[in-house]
Task: structure prediction
Amino acid sequence: MGALVVSVAVSFPTESASLISALSPPTKKKAAVDPRSYVGMYKRAADACPGLPWTVVAAVGEVESQHGRDAARSRAGAVGPMQFLPSTWKAYATDGDGDGRTDVHSPADAIATAGKVLSMKGGGDRSTMATAIWNYNHSWEYVARVLDVSAQLETAKGGD
Result:
């Protein structure tokens, strides 16, 4: 498996948001979503699970849909910015924006749900992090990609 190589230009003090944006630059094929608006949601989702780095939640968002820019239904039937299968959404759906509803297409709800899934699968413990990510998407290649993107975010900002 080849390494993911990303050229990143980060300018402080908005380094977390800038890095998120740099990881998935806009293209004409992608929806007009500003991934910098997701940073706070990634951090809140991780805060709900002690030990879960926000960079892991953000990396899942990058790998799944480039932070909502490519949230079309997958071949497997997953939908929304964090790409949930309907059965997974039904089991774990979380109201991340406090509006009293859970909407798989709402970034706040989807990101909060991703944090919940990772937490319930062991994402708060570094020793079980890879297994938690594997339970999110059953592919070790996927796990490696998520951990690589997370490491890039950690390196760029120290995990914030």
